[in-house]
Input
Amino acid sequence: MLIKNILSSSRSQAPAWERNWGQSSALSKVLMRTRYRIVDNSYPYFLTCTIVEWLPVFTREPYFEVIIDCLKHCRERKGLKVFAYVIMDNHLHLVAEGERLGATIKEFKSYTAKGIIELATAEGKDWLLNQFKFFKARHKQESRHQVWQEGFHPQLVSSGEMLAQKVEYIHDNPVKAGLVERAEDWVYSSAKNYLEQGGVMEIDELEL
Ligand code: NI
Output
């Protein structure tokens, strides 16, 4: 596993690197040549899903797999196009597109929340489960836990340049966090896919 130095602080706020765009890398030069065009009313969006209180949930493979399995399902069955993604310890980013994008992401969050709770229950992670209970929004009656923060901050990606910038930003997350030296060394992102080095799931690669 290339995952190292997973941040252990339980309540860290968004770190500085989250607020700054990445500097250019070899990958960005490839991406800046993108010929991707937005057609009709179908636009990609940059999305962020964050665990409640920035709790570090994704620290071991089974937790990452909950997300990967659900993304695969959404691609295969719900018409979700995933152009880029990264899973960090307490949040994930996507550049995605779909006819029912909002509804699909809502279902994705609900389904993965259940998976995370099941896993935490099976592993006896009472501390984590108690945090999920403690931070549950009062108005939410349908579940006892709150795993994700509300919403997913959709940002319309309206040009090829912006698209390249978002994809690069996504791939740079683990580098900026000091977890890996090169974007493609992070297992749970689409950086490898763009370098023809495989990747843990298929994506809808942009035409480069
Ligand atoms: Ni991030």
Observations:
- The beta strands are 45-50, 81-87, 91-97, 155-156.
- The CA atoms of residues 171 and 183 lie 6 Å apart.
